[in-house]
Amino acid sequence: MMKKQTQAARWIALSAMGLGVFMGLLDVTVVNVALPTMAKGFNTTFTNLQWVLNAYTLVYAVTLMIMSKLGDMYGRKKIFLWSMILFVIASAINGMAPSLFILDISRGIQAVGGAGMMSLSMALVASNFDGKERGLALGILGSIIGVSSASGPLIGGYLVEHFGWPAIFYVNVPFGILAVILTIFYVRETPSYGKDHKIDLAGMFLSAIGLFAVIYGLIVKEGHPHWAWVDGRVSGLIAGGIVIMAFFVWVEMRVEDPMIDIKMFKRPHFLGTILIAFALGSGIYAYNAFLTALMQNYIGYSAVQTGVRQLTISAWSLVLGPVAGILSSRYSKKWMIVGSMLLGGIGFFLMAHSISPLVTFVELWPGMVLMGIANGMVNPLLNTAGMEGTLPQEMGMVSGLLNVFRQFGTTVGVVGLGLIQDTQYENHLNAHMPDLEMPTKVMTAIKEALINAGPFSGHTIAFSNRMAHMPFAGSLQKVVIQAYDNGMAAVAVTSGMIVIVGGIGAALLMKNHVDSVHLDVNQHK
Asked: What is d(CA 423, CA 421) in angstroms, rounded to the nearest whole number?
């Protein structure tokens, strides 16, 4: 009877950790669909609202490794629990925020809690489960990661449409309180492996500043696509961040109790797993932003309609996560990951082939299904593979690093794919707008407006009421749509190449079998 209770407690603990992961990752994307409503509520512009997104993304990425290390040192349950409490409190403040400034600040605080939950969840699951159950549990956690990353448009769209934008934050409060209670009573604490060690304040500071500079530089470039990479406002941040991160590595190799054991990066298997994490972020997750824009801005689906159709991608995570966890104990995780990444690449190529001025969900869904299968298989397998051969005291940091590379990959992907789309869009306008029958001055002015608006907003200009009365409106709209389609096709092809290269890298670096490390928590107490 006691054994059954213990098993039940483990699965209840998994539900608590899963809730934390779901909330933390959902809040990376859920705000996107609420921006139009928030702009009206705060009487401000989309540009000013950008920091509601960026504050969370930046702080989340910067604090992942720090929270991982604190969990390894002082107990992962303890840091996970306080992170969840902080997340819930900040969520309530977000919903009540009287001004945009307060909302930006509380979003940053919320991100610290989200980072703590996300960075420690995988290590907590690994230490709360043993044997085959661990693979299944990590598979389920991978499912939750996959679903939360892709379900933002659906959940956010529904909440905003029916309850207003504060609901996207308030919804975290009751679920967060439930998760806090379950964590207190059911999640088993891990040893404080480094409680007698000195906190590596220099490493924490350097890693935070370095990551901040690089990611903020990419965000600046995303917001100003026509600024050159060598522009000091972009290159200064990115180059400065890289220099700081190089200094961080130098420091870590010399301090007695480093934040990160740099020797971890000498393991080919571990390098293979973080390469896959980066490819997932820069290929699949980054592409979701462009797919959402295609469905809403060009096809014309509402936020909720878009979210429902994107279940074609996210629903596979629910189905395949547990399956992948079970299969991981029988078959090679390496080759299942490689095969799934190649399948995802084929899905992107199908998406690129299907994009046309008359594209609808009917043409898109086959490629979306393959993307969903790849995401649904790789995420849970990656969690399990990443923990293989990892010492108990390193598990929190390994979990944090996988999440850092996944999030960093998403940021790099959004910027890189955006630049590819912008280039293709602009090249098409430059090549075909001179053929339209309109005065040169008018053509130049409209083309400049379309380029400045970019692929996402150019559709609004071309199909505006003012433009509809122009004699060349139909021809112009056709050129704009074709320009956008060229950009989207290039984005899909690039994403496909990213995930395929990631799969090839995993094939070369990852091992079929990694010597396991005994993870019995009780022996360390």
From this structure: 5
